[in-house]
Design brief:
heterotrimer; A mainly alpha (673); B mainly alpha (219); C mainly alpha (319); C: 319 residues; mainly alpha; 71% helix; globular
């Protein structure tokens, strides 16, 4: 089977999955849809691997499918990497969905939308023309919106999340379309190749504004601050596998779009474009990490952490473009590899974390960390996998998160002092932002793992939790396995990433990372041997554990009651809650987080000096949402109210409007024509 | 004086000036701030002395001695007395909290570095390359002046700006004329004396040196 | 690379780990002795921590009833990560066996594993104190991180590499860079970060007995017997390792190639002398320092960050 046939067959399998999801009886729906999702993922992935291996793009064209323009599919090595990334998340997520089905995924709509969502994500990076891209992009947004809304009948929060998501994603699509039109206007065709050819002859103002507009549009999909506000609303409300798909795969396509615009279509640009991206990425990373550290809802925490990780990737991308602009081509390729590696790693660990959060919700019915606790004892395998994925997110070696941060740090280190003053200033600041982000991520994930999975159960639901079905565990397990493998043997993914980076940077040299067991950067001094470190860690662990066993008289520990300052019968309420765990961070950063504290004291009637009961609430809202979006919404409401005067309900008035508009247009034509 | 020794002595002395400016933002105790001002004066005098030895200019050595006397001894002593008079002014109450001030100071340093890139490009000497550091300590002084509340810490801010200007002058022109520096230093000593008198007056009238209370005077 | 050189490097790495494991408790004892001296006490013998460890290893292992496998695993992970970090750092020789496999950045994250796992173990015990210690410890760690990485960036400028042996070697070859403001600022920042990361005064009081003021001690409150011994060893090794890296960045003399036994022995002696000097200096400083309020710590760490920024800027200015 040639790659082209496999691409078409994969897409058809996805559509077939939707048919199965819509037609099968309720019990079998999700399983049927999932099985065809695997077929689709497998076919597309094989085609992608073939393209990456041969470095020859696959080009398909059909004039029939879309009126006027036709459909163009171009699977370049760069797009192929993203196809693989989507498949990496989609296959385990749909496996997990089989077990998760009864939480809203087994309706006809949801079971049909899930394969279509996955298929549209698999096809977006293969789009070869503006029209094809926009259609697939909007389909992806539409099907994901349907999946966010599965709970809309029961939950007000889901309806509100859907509204936010729909608004931002469509505003984003409008920006993307404008950016494409700016470049495509006057070009000989609307395929990306034609647009890129035309764009190279445009003036700097048009090119610059197209890049900025596209950065806004794709940034809103990628969850970049200040367009991130839909993430912490939509991710928690979507079912577990769907949020894994959205956070692991769909958000990465936002970054794909920025690279597509900046490198593939515009062929790079002046330094200020990329320093802008670097700044926005750094702000996103910091803001996301801060909010992740202070969230008490598990999935909200993960959603903010997504903003954080995508921010790091956009930072790497910004560094790459800046270095390309200052003619450091080798380093630019290295930084682009770092950006792509960060995205792949994020897909693996964040996918695993969102699926785990789905498992937790399945087992306990809640995602409020303060209602969880003690889950590692009750769900040993799910809990252990959550811990590994959390460690990977915190960039602890020898897991995959570390590789990405290491590459980012190396590209920052070797990029500093390489160019203009602005870059010299920006890069140390970026290093500090990255470092603080890393520290805050550790806070967030020690909190998530410690409060949610360790200690005593904090509610009856957590007390009675049991391990979830094997399909859900296996889904998480595949992704956790990817975290370990990609961390210990990053050489497994690097050739593919390099091929992708080179195809995006066309004409530039490859980063030339040696793809053996250790990472050796060419042209600069930097080396890392993750496998050696991993083996050393395992050997040291076994040696120390053996030493303890040999020295201790009684190897098995005795179970005792924990120390409570002499107080007996400790309860779960004495533990630190998620809010109290985050309190120091919140206090240090209260200028940014602006937490709202409420302390209600009630006194007995006899005296004001005694306290009968005290309740304390502390909530952390989103400053960007409050400061940026709420005023806009209020203004829109105001204008809406004024515009309502135009609608008296009289048919004659409406006919009159139409007549008036026609006359005005005719006058305009007469005068201007 | 050999070239490399001259370079590192100058670099370190200039760094001391900037570091002392940063320390005034870092510490809360007014005494510690005054101490670091004295250290800065010492650093500035060292810069003048190192330049003087390097260029073989006795005038600069005289300036160094004067700077040492005025900025490292006399002015800090006067300020310490001022603090001793009013126990209420021992702690500065920053309008911008300390970590944020320090981060801002870091940003100002980068700004100074970026802004003087074109100047340092045309001044090839070792001293010329260090101009951004002088500008940075000036900016930090300004920052200290408008974010610190107590009268004493404001005076310190003023002196920081003055030291920064002097440092830039030393580095850019290898020394201001003796008379000018003399006049400027005297000027500052006078200003400190006047401010001290004012502050003591304020204290006897209002009972505190807190400048925020001055806003209440207008009604 | 020939076999004897490889064997020498492997030997040097083993020597480094063993020296850390045995020397660190003695360093702790020495620092206590210095403190006692300044407080007018005789103090315990310098080898007392080693005796304590022997006693602890003989005692019974205990585990809170709510704890999971995290709790017994954490001390082992702590010691293992510090040992690996010790094996890859240029302490005795600039070319330890695994020296090429990781850089300063990796070293920081290796040490982060230990502190993260200890924080999790604190939460695992299901008590108020465990959570309290964990929360404070990870917050301080997060705030120390920017200072640390910016300083690493500044240090890496000189050697054009973040590889620690390369940085140390660059200093050996060009000792004059020690007197640059860049190095001095880096040193200042590193000292603060080392104090924060190893939980010494004024960040944390290692000798406190009041639970509410504890940071590190609160986290490990539930440990007893051999597990406590491992935690103590691990923490002492971390302190010794950080001091060792610090002194080798500042004064890289005696750190040589590991081609012969005398060279390794010389390296060990030099390291012992330098770390002892640094430890004594730290202990003297601690005598005159009071613990800072928890919420004043951001000021201290922001100061360290600022020093790191100054180091970077002076690197840019002077270049």
């Amino acid at each position: 089977m040639t790659a082209g046939v496999m691409i078409v067959a994969g897409a058809l399998a996805g559509v077939g999955g939707a048919a199965l999801g819509a037609l099968l009886p309720q019990r079998l729906r999700v399983a049927g849809a999932a099985s065809l999702i695997w077929v689709a993922c497998a076919l597309e992935a094989v085609a992608a691997i073939q393209v990456l291996a041969t470095r020859q793009p696959v080009i398909l064209h059909s004039a029939q499918l879309l009126p006027m323009t036709g459909v163009d599919i171009v699977l370049s090595p760069f797009g192929a990497l993203f196809v693989l990334l989507v498949a990496l998340v989609a296959a385990p997520a749909s496996l997990h969905a089989v077990g998760y089905a009864r939480h809203g995924l087994d309706t006809r709509t949801a079971a049909a939308a899930l394969p279509l969502f996955v298929t549209s994500m698999l096809l977006v990076p293969q789009a070869g023309s503006v029209a094809t891209f926009m259609v697939l992009w909007e389909l992806m947004a539409l099907f994901s919106l349907m999946l966010v809304l599965v709970d809309h009948a029961r939950s007000e929060a889901a309806r509100s999340a859907g509204a936010w998501y729909a608004t931002l994603t469509h505003a984003g699509a409008a920006f993307i379309l404008v950016a494409f039109l700016m470049l495509a206007a006057g070009s000989s065709g609307q395929t990306f190749a034609a647009v890129a050819h035309h764009a190279s002859r445009l003036g700097p103002v048009v090119r610059g504004s197209a890049f900025v507009v596209a950065l806004v549009g794709f940034g809103s999909k990628a969850g970049m601050v200040p367009f991130h506000v839909w993430l912490p609303k939509a991710h928690p409300e979507a079912p577990g596998p769907v949020s894994a798909l959205m956070s692991g795969a769909m958000v990465a396509l936002g970054v794909y779009g920025i690279v597509l615009m900046g490198y593939v279509l515009l062929g790079g640009g002046p330094g200020w474009w990329w320093l802008l991206a670097l700044a926005l990425g750094a702000v996103s990373a910091l803001y996301g990490a801060l909010h992740a550290a202070s969230s008490t809802d598990l999935k909200r925490l993960l959603a903010y952490s997504t903003t954080d990780n995508v921010g790091l990737s956009i930072m790497a991308l910004g560094v790459s473009g800046y270095l390309a602009a200052t003619q450091h081509r080798l380093l630019a390729a290295l930084a682009l590899v770092a950006a792509l590696v960060l995205l792949i790693n994020h897909a693996a660990f964040k996918g695993a974390l969102f699926l785990s959060a789905g498992s937790v919700q399945h087992a306990t019915g809640t995602r409020d960390l303060d209602q969880l606790g003690g889950l590692l004892r009750r769900m040993p395998q799910s809990g252990a996998m959550f811990l590994i994925a959390a460690a990977a997110t915190s960039a602890l070696p020898p897991l995959n998160g570390f590789i990405g941060e290491w590459l980012l740090f190396q590209s920052l280190l070797h990029g500093s002092g390489a160019g203009s003053t602005a870059g010299d200033v920006a890069i140390p600041l970026a290093v500090s932002a990255m470092a603080l982000t890393a520290g805050l991520t550790v806070v967030a994930f020690v909190k998530a793992a410690g409060v949610g999975f360790l200690g005593r159960p904090r509610s009856a639901a957590a007390e009675q939790a049991v391990e979830v079905a094997w399909s859900m565990r296996l889904g998480v397990g595949v992704l956790v396995g990817a975290c370990v493998v990609l961390g210990v043997v990053p050489g497994a993914m690097l050739p593919a990433v390099e091929a992708a980076a080179q195809s995006a940077l066309h004409g530039m040299p490859a980063a030339q990372l040696s793809s053996g067991l250790d990472l050796q950067l060419a042209g600069v001094r930097g080396a890392l041997a993750p496998a050696e470190v991993a083996v050393a860690l395992v050997v040291a662990f076994l040696a120390v554990a053996g030493l303890r066993r040999a020295l201790a008289r009684r190897p098995a520990p005795r179970l005792t009651e924990a120390w409570g300052c002499g107080r007996e019968l400790q309860t779960a309420r004495m533990q630190y809650t998620a809010a109290s765990f985050a309190e120091p961070v919140q206090r240090v950063f209260d200028d940014v987080l602006r937490p709202v504290h409420d302390l209600d004291l009630s006194h007995p009637a006899e005296s004001r000096y005694f306290i009968e009961s005290a309740t304390y609430h502390s909530t952390v809202g989103d400053v960007v949402e409050r400061g940026l979006y709420v005023p806009v919404i209020r203004a829109l409401r105001h204008w809406g109210r004024i515009a309502r005067g135009l609608q008296p309900g009289s048919v004659h008035r409406y006919l009159g409007y139409g007549f008036g508009a026609l006359v005005v247009i005719l006058i305009a034509v007469a005068v201007l024509g | 004086m050999t070239g490399s020794f001259y370079a590192s002595a100058l670099e370190i002395a200039v760094s001391v000036v900037l570091l002392a400016a940063m320390v005034t933002l870092w510490r809360r105790s007014v005494r510690a701030i005054v101490r670091s001002l004295a250290v800065q004066g010492f650093g500035l005098a060292t810069v003048a002395a190192v330049l003087g030895f390097h260029l073989g200019d006795p005038g600069l050595l005289v300036v160094a001695a004067l700077v040492l006397g005025a900025k490292a001894v006399v002015i800090p002593y006067l300020l310490t007395r001022l603090v001793r008079v009013d126990p209420g002014s021992r702690e500065t109450q920053p309008l911008v909290n300390v970590p944020a001030s320090l981060v801002a100071a870091g940003a100002l340093t980068f700004l100074a570095f970026a802004a003087t890139r074109s100047v340092t490009a045309v001044v090839p000497s070792i001293a010329g390359r260090l101009i951004p550091v002088g500008l940075a300590s000036m900016l930090v002084g300004f920052f200290a002046m408008f974010t610190r509340r107590k009268a004493v810490s404001q005076i310190v801010g003023l002196l920081l700006v003055d030291n920064g200007v002097a440092l830039v002058a030393f580095l850019a022109t290898s020394g201001v004329p003796l008379l000018v520096e003399l006049g400027a230093s005297l000027d500052v000593v006078l200003a400190v004396v006047v401010l001290q008198v004012l502050a003591v007056q304020l204290r006897t009238r209002l009972g505190a040196f807190d400048l925020d209370q001055l806003t209440e005077l207008h009604d | 690379m020939n076999a004897s050189l490889l064997a020498g490097e492997a030997l040097a790495a083993v020597v480094q780990v063993v020296a850390l494991a045995l020397g660190a408790p003695v360093l702790l004892g020495l620092m206590r002795k210095v403190r006692a001296h300044f407080e007018g006490r005789v103090g315990q013998p310098v080898v007392q921590p080693l005796r304590d460890l022997r006693k602890l290893f003989r005692k019974e292992r205990m585990r809170p009833d709510q704890a999971t496998w995290i709790f017994p695993a954490a001390p082992v992970v702590l010691v293992a990560t510090v040992a690996v970090a010790g094996a890859i750092s240029p302490l005795v020789t600039t070319r330890p066996a695994l020296g090429g496999s990781a850089d300063l950045f990796a070293l920081v994250y290796l040490l982060l594993i230990g502190s993260t796992v200890l924080a999790l173990a604190g939460m695992d015990s299901g008590t108020a104190f465990g959570g309290m210690g964990a929360s404070r410890a990870v917050t301080i760690g997060a705030l120390a991180e920017p200072a640390l990485l910016v300083t690493i960036l500044a240090l890496s400028f000189g050697a054009h590499s973040s590889n620690l042996p390369a940085i140390v070697q660059a200093t050996v070859l060009h000792p004059e860079i020690l007197a640059t403001p860049q190095r001095l600022f880096s040193l200042g920042a590193l000292v603060v970060v080392v104090v924060a990361e190893s939980g010494r005064l004024p960040v944390d009081n290692p000798a406190t007995h009041l639970e509410l003021t504890m940071i590190h001690e609160a986290m490990i409150l539930e440990y007893a017997g051999p597990d406590l011994a491992l935690v103590t060893v691990g923490e002492a090794m971390r302190l010794a390792l950080l001091l060792g890296i610090l002194v080798n960045v500042v004064a890289p003399w005696g750190v040589g190639a590991a081609d012969s036994l005398p060279a390794i022995a010389l390296g060990v002696v030099a390291l012992a002398v330098k770390v002892t000097a640094a430890g004594v200096a730290l202990a003297v400083f601690e005598v005159f320092t009071a613990k800072m309020r928890l919420f004043r710590l951001p000021e201290l760490l922001a100061g360290a960050f600022m020093l790191g920024v100054l180091a970077v800027v002076s690197g840019l200015v002077v270049r």
